[in-house]
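Appendix C reproduces, verbatim, an entry submitted by the partner laboratory led by Prof. M.T., so that reviewers can inspect both the input and the predicted structure.
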Amino acid sequence: MMKWVIRGLLAVGVIAVLGTVSSYLFVDRELNRMYGAFVDVAEPELEAEAAETYALANVNVLAPEADRFIPGQSVIVEDGLIRTVGAGDVPEGIRAVDGQGMYLVPGFTDSHVHLWESANDLLLYVANGVTQVREMNGQPNNLAWKREIEEGRIGPEIFVVAPQFATFVGFEGVMVGWTQRKTIVRNRKDVERAVAAFKAAGYDALKSSSFLSRENYDQLSEVAAEAGMPLVGHIPVATDLDAVWRGNASEIAHIEELVKQLDKEFGGYGPDEAGAFLEFVRERSDDVAQNLVREGIMVTSTLDLVDSFHRQKSQLKEELQAAELEYENPGIAEGTVIASRGMGWLPEVNIYRWPEGMDERRQARSLIYWKAYAEAQHILLDAMLAHGVDILAGTDANVPVMVPGFSLHDELQAMNAAGMSSSEVLASATVKPAAFMASNTGEISAGRKAHLVLLRDNPLEDISATREIEMVMLGTHVFDRADLDAMLQSVADANAASRKVALAGK
């Protein structure tokens, strides 16, 4: 009898183990699908061939200060670097592209993106003139792409920030680390171990998340400085601005982070307190900006994303219709059954959607809250500009409704509309991020990498001209408009083949 009992218990145990393993495999596969691992890989047929030496003739070149164009210039590129910039004819024997009076600018940088697992995004960036990105929650596959691009794969230069640090305990920590790709720490030893591993792996910077404890944030700030790695990202909810000012942060990932901190100082606002909160932000904004300047902390914009929050709640279908949704990673857009508010874009899974059944009165009050939230970041931006805070253009690409590549041009227009001059906007997407990332790009001068974009119109006169791309240069590669269109079409085709949910109206 005992033998049969033991066998029965063993069978139950085996079934339990198999069930656990099956559940793990299912969830892991769903997570990978959500992040885009199963999206077909785009393979465009391109005409561009590597050219060791070439020239761009008769172009207007953006000055290093990004405040004017210098007319009638010839730019000679050799072995992927700019050799000379100046007036005069191109020497015989060098392949020359006639710029016909068009406008040559450095390749653009999006300083806040999430690549996740679909390599098709790499083509979207290049096709939109974005030749450098800062990946803000990097993974091993992103490091692999970075190396491959350095070896000749088509894609933007990638500055890879390590998986963001967060404080969770027990089973919750295991789940958050697994599903959200975060670095879970609980004490200084955890922090030191993780930082050493990330530095050895080749990550370029470290990121604090909103969910890092105050103690762990202070420890990460110290350990990052000791390791010589920049600390960037969120201001944890558990800490405050004083901890940021006395710490070693190099950058804050969103203007929104400062809004959250001021909301906490205010005591938490709701629809009824929105006006008083905005007045509080006005009173505090100069001090915040002065501290940012004193501590040398840059701030990444993500204006357009935060401005879209209330529209995604009240006009989601219109927002999705306006977005270049056919190019968005289908896994991310469609979300997954295991995390209804994990990454989704579409109406049924959108992470910013109102809860089901919210009545009109609550919706109206919600809009008051979120419109004030957006206005607060504009008040802070005004103060930052007045005090000379360095602003980096960033979009949080792959967060709804920020389509990789396209979203940077939306952000540049949002920054311009918010009060930044066209020159300031261009600097925020060229020379300033290049300096932050030490990338030898960002301006058109001898010795810099030939990451260049040829525009049909003058972006200093109308910032929307950044969209009017005729040609993109990536070192030894020259992609004309036909090649750029082929990249876009190949991504749209690959996405369509991988899509499980039809795009309404597209």
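Confidence is low (pLDDT under 50) at residues 2-14. Additional entries are available on request from the coordinating office.
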